[in-house]
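Checklist before submission:
- one chain only
- standard amino acids only
- sequence pasted in full

Submission:
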Amino acid sequence: MNPPSTDARPVPVPPGAGASVEKWLQYLEAIHPTEIDLGLDRVLVVLRRLFPRKPAARIITVAGTNGKGTTVAALESLLRAAGRTTGAYTSPHLQRYNERVRINGQDISDAALISAFEQVEAARGKVSLTYFEFGTLAAFVALADAGVEDWILEVGLGGRLDAVNVLDADFAVITSIDIDHIGFLGDNREVIGFEKAGILRPGITAVCADPEPPASVLQQAAAQKVNLQVTGRDYQLRPVGDSVELTIEGLSITLPAGPLPVESVAAAVVLARVLAPTMTVSLLADTAKSVTVPGRFERLRTKPDVIVDVGHNPHAARWLAQRLEMQRSGQGKVFGVYAALADKDVEGVMRAMAPVVERWWFAGLDVPRGLEVQALVERARASGITGCTASESVGDAMSSALAEAGENDTIVVFGSFYTVAEARARLVGEIS
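Returned file contents:
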């Protein structure tokens, strides 16, 4: 007979009455053996206990490689401008978990979030859920408790097997399709497109902000008779001076060229015309101009400019490099502070940014899957990146870059939500 195992994980004890959000999050981290465990079976069991019937709200699901957060924020603003009540679920967060759930544009309160956690815990019984799955179901509960009319849900990873996809979308957006999360989604756009298009449902209206969607997306849309609006085919974007003109069905709507990805803003406007058909062109344009997303080409200070961006794959890095090239003064230099997770295409990101970054600071990330700084330096050298400084933390790298930068220079801090969170914490006194 084999001796009993000595490495069994202790059974986590649910937080008691009055427990804090932090205690609940620690519990969520402990109740499932793996961080990512794609599949809908477990989530569906608990969902049916929580919601015997589909929630009485319009479900809008947003998937894509990049630009999802921008689309969610733009849809929130547009629908609220039209007089609708909204709830949004996004991930990950920068400073506080509460950022992931927004009710009418405001982060959820601790009390409402804890109530949602308690309801999911009571419903799940012995069903094991990942941190993300538990949080997703809690977000659904919170939005239902708030009674909002429109749920805007950002897919966490992929689409088809992501926990968010357990709810059938009434409307959908696919922002962009590129290579990311190879270990989970595949290594080519056709396979990844198939996963993203898994959020589509028969007969719904959807928008695709990718001007060259893979055939796998178009095939799924056609098979399910989805009314798919594709940029470049069903609506057009054209630069006009410092703005971008969106043309759809004979209407022209002026959108800001930046700092957010205009393709994602445009997708939200296109869908808003369906969701809130009474909105005027001027209201659509004015609302689109006011959209902001923390951590997305966010300027934290000036002289020198410090810009943070959560972009973490080559597609996002190419967009970031273009934005930096557009806004640089011509006199100053661009300094890059970069820290990343170990499973990302750091070589591809650095190659995309190399044409605009003149001096590099690399930092390690002391988080799960965080890439140590020496490993990052070695991968940079293998990619032909020279003239770099290694720092143990993002804060140290920023301090070093700030000491060297002049008033006309730009410091861009990028590579991960964790990277941006550290940068914002470093400058919290200056941005509060």
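Reviewer check: The first strand starts at residue 58 and ends at 63.
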